Amino acid sequence: TVSVLYWHPAMVGREHDVRFIMDFSLYRIAKQLRLLGYDAECSRENTQEMVVRKARADGRTLITASPSQVPHIEKLNKAVREEAPPPQRTIIGYNSDGESEYADSEPDTDGPGGVINYIVINTNVKFDDQFRQVVQLGGIRWMPHRVFSRCVLCNILISDVPDKESIRDLVSPAVFDAYAHFYQCRGCLKVYWGMDSGVVVNFKALRTIENLKRFCIPASSDVSRHLLSLPRTIKVAIFSFLTVEELRTVGRAYTMLSGLLTAIERGEATKFVPDWKKAKMEERRAARLKAAAAGAAGPT
Questions:
Q1: 229 and 153, same structural domain?
Q2: How many domains is the chain partitioned into structurally?
Q3: How far apart are CA 178 and CA 216, in angstroms?
Q4: What rounded mean pLDDT belongs to the chain?
Q5: Tens digit of pLDDT for each residue in 26-75?
Q6: Which one of 230, 242, 281, 296 has the fewest beta carbons within 10 angstroms of its own beta carbon?
Q7: The pTM is what?
């Protein structure tokens, strides 16, 4: 059983500043995202319909555990795409023969009022599997300067407490005496501690950091943009190690590779010829036949 049931292909390669929204049943996921410093709206007051509306209006990525929402979301997305300008054909790389490989780039329909990027998870699997997929598909990166920058309760940014005495009554005497630096949420006024100018000074904070790091991709890691420019033989060598399920996942992310991935799945990769190359070969063949016919007819 996989932890992700559906996901929108546009999620792959998203910028690090992606914002999320989900209903309250997924509060645990929202809490982990907030610990990582990501804006994750999750309120008891939001119904599923409200979550969809806010996701579109605010340009947030929707995370839900309800597959029944997908048809409604796709209906909204279809309307947005129909109003968008036609796609532009661009060069995405060069194959092993030195010829250009093209892809039709979709118009930019992300952002407020655009298509809704979404992830639908299966809550019947372990939480670690759920969150790992959210991290991978949501474009989450490990950025130390953002960790512990948001309130886990209300999602608002926290800030330094300039005067320690101002929060004396909000923490226990033992905590007040043990720590020199405190942080406070600007919204609910919850007080946090365990970090001192970016240095972990609390075992619980350290344990939380180590737990979060095991899910995340380093901020400098960005290999997806290089994948399409690799020679076909290299792509075949890489993808041959993947399972059928993994090949299909890659196919959803890189639709221009779907033909090659299908050929690999069927064990026909060595015979695979891309459609654009077939068309070019057919054009050359037609040109040769035309030239031969003209030569046979002789001068007029």
A1: no
A2: 3
A3: 31
A4: 80
A5: 999 999 999 999 999 999 999 989 999 999 999 999 999 998 899 999 99
A6: 296
A7: 0.62
Residue 21's H or E segment, with its range, is strand 20-23
Residue with tokens 């995202």: 33
More confident residue, 282 or 198: 282
Quickly tell me which residue has 């899910």 as its tokens.
215
> What tokens were used for 252?
């959803």
From 185, 212, 13, select the one nearest 105 (Cα to Cα): 13
Which amino acid would we find at residue 125? V
Contact 133, 169 (CB under 8 A): no
Assess whether 203 and 247 both reside in one domain: no
Are 118 and 152 within one domain?
Answer: no
Residue 171 DSSP code: S
Which residues does 42 contact at the CB level (< 8 Å), separation at least 6? 21, 22, 23, 24, 26, 27, 30, 155
Please report which confidence band the pLDDT of residue 82 belongs to, taking 50, 70 and 90 as the band edges.
Answer: confident
| 135 and 43 within one domain | yes
Helix (H/G/I), strand (E/B), else coil: 197:
coil
Phi and psi (nearest 5°) for 223?
A: -95, -15
Q: What is the CATH number of the domain that holds 70?
A: 3.40.50
Residue 160 identity (one-letter amino acid): D
The answer as to whether 108 is a domain residue is no
**Whether 153 contacts 24, CB under 8 Å:** no
